[in-house]
Specification:
It is globular, with a radius of gyration of 14 Å. It has one helix spanning about 115-120, and strands at about 10, 30-35, 40, 55, 65, 75, 100. Helix content is about 5%, strand content about 15%. It has a single domain, classed as Leucine-rich repeat, LRR (right-handed beta-alpha superhelix), CATH 3.80.10.10. It is mainly beta. The protein has a five-stranded parallel beta sheet, with no helix packed on it. It has a two-stranded parallel sheet with strand order 3-5.
C-alpha cells in the first residue's frame, strides 16, 4: 500500500468539496483532479512541489491564486467555472512551465479580445 504522502495522483472529482485544504503535505503529488465540485476560489496549493496537472473543471471558481507555488505546473483545466475577469487569472503568468490552460465555458471566454488577453496574461 502506497503511503499517503507519496501519492502521485489524487482524484477527488464529484465529491461536493467547497475548499482546497489539507493537501499541502503531498509534495510528490503530480496530478490533482478536483473537477465537478463546489470550489469557489483556487488557493492553498503551497507544498505541492511536484504538481504538473490541476483539473478544476466544472466548479464555481471566480478567482485563481497561488499557482506560483506549483513551479512544475504544466496543465491547468478551469473550464466551465465563473471566471469573468482577466485579473482573476493573473497568477498564471508565474507558471513558467505552463503549456496548457483551458478556460472555455467561463464568462471570460466571451469577452472581446479574449485570446490576446489570455496570451498576454501567460
Amino acid at each position: 500500500m502506497q503511503s499517503l504522502t507519496k501519492l502521485d495522483v489524487l482524484d477527488l472529482h464529484s465529491n461536493k468539496i467547497s475548499r482546497i485544504e489539507n493537501i499541502n503535505h503531498l509534495a510528490d503529488l503530480r496530478v490533482l483532479n478536483l473537477a465537478n465540485n463546489l470550489i469557489t476560489n483556487v488557493s492553498n496549493l503551497t507544498g505541492l512541489f511536484s504538481l504538473t496537472e490541476l483539473n478544476l473543471r466544472r466548479n464555481l471558481i471566480d478567482s485563481v491564486q497561488g499557482l506560483q507555488a506549483c513551479s512544475r505546473l504544466q496543465r491547468v483545466f478551469l473550464s466551465n467555472n465563473r471566471i469573468d475577469k482577466f485579473e482573476s487569472i493573473n497568477c498564471v503568468k508565474d507558471c513558467a512551465q505552463l503549456s496548457e490552460l483551458a478556460l472555455d465555458g467561463n464568462p471570460l471566454h466571451q469577452k472581446k479580445g479574449y485570446a490576446e488577453q489570455v496570451l498576454k496574461a501567460c
